[in-house]
Write a structure and sequence with these properties.
Ectoine hydroxylase; alpha+beta; Jelly Rolls; three-stranded antiparallel sheet; 8 helices; 10 strands; 295 residues; Phytyl_CoA_dOase-like; seven-stranded mixed sheet
Length: 295
């Protein structure tokens, strides 16, 4: 079964829940490729936003930029966080009591000289992977990767992952990250076009490959989790930003601006005042057969 699907049905037609076929693929493979989410004009617009960020923020020695807190750093990216073709993947998986806890934008120009071996393979979540004792670990979060560059060929800094590895707690790796070590069995470079989105389970084992091509790698990563998990992004003072009132209420929830300081609200005790719950209810998208979407 292919992990590639189309986003066309959702674009311009409101929110469409994850299909049973998509859910089966996601549960089996740990990721989905959503084709053609962004139009060519949107790709150019958001790529230009990343280019400005690349020109104005401190870069690594190799010229790359890994900038945390994507929307706080670049408010022009706000419309990506509740895109009608991608947000349904999030609430179809996690439900309505969610926010963005970790996000970043990446710009990786061409690498002119080979880099030394380095073990990049990981699951998202940091200490979650040391401190939660279940096998397999719980999903807890999902991530959207908006591709603003053509990485339809290998060697362009593609996201590399192991399909189906999201239910495997450990990979056999080197004793230290800088010890030369072969790629894990089944490692696959995901090849997508500019405008495509990769939706993946935070547990899938993945790594960034090096960009030895002439194509600059541009991507925006947005990680969603339950609101009872702390936000890692820099969100303090967001409601005082001049662009904050221009956001819709769902966007404000996703950026952590609803129920601030109220632990019960983040626990989901007040669905009637939680914007995403209200939006799903108004659209008839709450689902009593799926616990995260029970009315």
């Amino acid at each position: 079964m292919s992990a590639t699907t189309t986003a066309g049905a959702a674009t311009g037609a409101g929110w469409v829940p994850m299909t049973s076929e998509q859910r089966e693929q996601f549960d089996t493979d740990g990721y989905l490729v959503l084709k053609g989410v962004l139009s060519p004009d949107e790709v150019r617009h958001y790529a230009s936003v990343l280019d400005v960020a690349h020109a104005t923020h401190p870069r690594a020695a190799d010229g790359s930029l890994h900038l945390l807190s994507a929307v706080t750093s670049c408010p022009e990216l706000a419309d990506l966080i509740d895109h009608p073709a991608t947000l349904p993947m999030v609430w179809s998986t996690l439900g309505w009591n969610v926010h963005i806890y970790h996000s970043h934008l990446d710009v990786h120009p061409t690498i002119r000289a080979p880099k030394p071996d380095w073990w990049h393979w990981h699951q998202d979540g940091g200490r979650q992977n040391r401190e939660i004792e279940t096998d397999p670990r719980p999903r807890l979060s999902v991530k959207l990767a908006y591709w603003l560059s053509d990485v339809s060929e290998e060697g362009r800094g593609n996201l590399t992952l192991i399909p189906g590895s999201h239910k495997t707690n450990w990979l056999p790796g080197p004793p230290k990250r800088d010890v030369p070590w072969p790629a894990p069995a089944g490692a696959t470079q995901v090849k997508v076009d500019a405008g495509d989105v990769v939706f993946f389970d935070r547990r899938i084992w993945h790594a960034r490959s090096f960009n030895y091509s002439e194509v600059t790698r541009r991507c925006v990563f947005l990680g969603y989790t339950y609101r009872w998990i702390q936000i890692r992004d820099a969100v303090a003072g967001l409601p005082s930003k001049p662009w904050w009132p221009k956001l819709n209420q769902v966007q404000q929830q996703l950026l952590g601006g609803v129920g601030v300081g109220d632990g019960d609200h983040h626990w989901g005790h007040y669905p009637e005042s939680t914007p995403l719950y209200v939006a799903l209810r108004e659209r008839g998208l709450l689902d009593p057969s799926f616990p995260p979407l029970i009315p």
